[in-house]
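Q&A FORM
Asked by: J.P.
Topic: structure of Methyltransferase domain-containing protein

PROVIDED:
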Amino acid sequence: MSCDYVLELGCGTGRFTRALIEAGIPEENLVCVEIDGELFNYLAGEFKKARVIRGNACDMMSIIPGELIGKIGVVVSGIPMINLPHVVQKAIVDGCMNVMRPRGEIIQFTYSPLASLNTSLLGLRKRKVATVFRNFPPATVWAYERAPSVNSL
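REPLIED BY: S.T.
REPLY: Here is the structure written out as tokens.
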């Protein structure tokens, strides 16, 4: 993966965090954001080389260290976006776009076959990456990136 850092949102018990490390992402290149205090403490103890941050993904610009802004190439999200109000989705997506490099992507896991983000309302372009049938219910993986603006065409 050609990026400096990978930002993971909603890390939970670290299942995706471990998978990212096993896939070859250096642990020191992981930035893990978790809102729950107990899970944050667990993650901080489990992933000592990663930057584990306790915070709300809606407050991205205030929780991500300034030296990482623009150096994040991919955001991996386990947050159940499909269940969140549009205003919360927008805050998270806008925050991600503000901390990532210009051509960064948001990788979103959902347990619905439908995309969890309304791309037209959020100014995004989407593509279905995979369906994981080993999960129950099956998980769908979507990649989102900034949609090209009308002015740039």
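FOLLOW-UP: The longest strand covers residues 100-110.
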